[in-house]
Amino acid sequence: MTVVKSERDPIDVHVGGRLRLVRTSRRLSLEDLGRQIGVTYQQIQKYETGANRVSAATLFRLSQVFEVSPTFFFDGLASEGTEDETAMASPEALQSSIALGRIPDGEVRQRLRLLIDALDPSSNR
Question: Does the pLDDT of residue 48 top 70, yes or no?
């Protein structure tokens, strides 16, 4: 007897959501991303919805395309494999974070973070 699993794994859905977030924040189409990693746009759609699980090799290729660590796709998962809603970023926050990480000068990065903190009305100064 074969058991068919119809529900999507919450971790696969989370990884797919992170993929969609970074893809759309970089304004990359499904087709363009698929071409870059050697799959169809339909396959990218399946990854993004969690319908298909992303293999380790594909996850690595995606991290290279987007210049992020492979662990980026797991950020925001709680230890039980559920989403930590407070850790989910908006596309704008994601773009800013990636851009900040690309600045090679650590002192400049630190000063920009201080500026952002100073502009944040909710920060405890």
Answer: yes
Q: Which amino acid is at 123?
A: S
Rounded to whole angstroms, how far apart are CA atoms 100 and 109? 6
Is the model more confident about 111 or about 11? 11
* Best CATH choice for the domain 1-88 from the list 3.30.360.10, 1.10.760.10, 3.40.50.300, 1.10.260.40: 1.10.260.40
**For residue 22, how many other CB atoms are within 10 A of its CB?**
24
For the chain, how far is it from start to end, CA to CA, in angstroms?
A: 62
Which range is least confidently modeled, 3-12, 35-44, 77-86, 109-118? 77-86
User: Where in the chain are the domains?
Assistant: 1-88, 90-125
State pTM to two decimals. Answer: 0.66
How far apart, in whole angstroms, are the C-alpha atoms of residue 101 and residue 106? 9
- DSSP helix/strand/coil, 75: coil
How far apart (Å, rounded) are the C-alpha atoms in residues 10 and 77?
10
Other Cβ atoms within 10 Å of 18 Cβ, number: 23
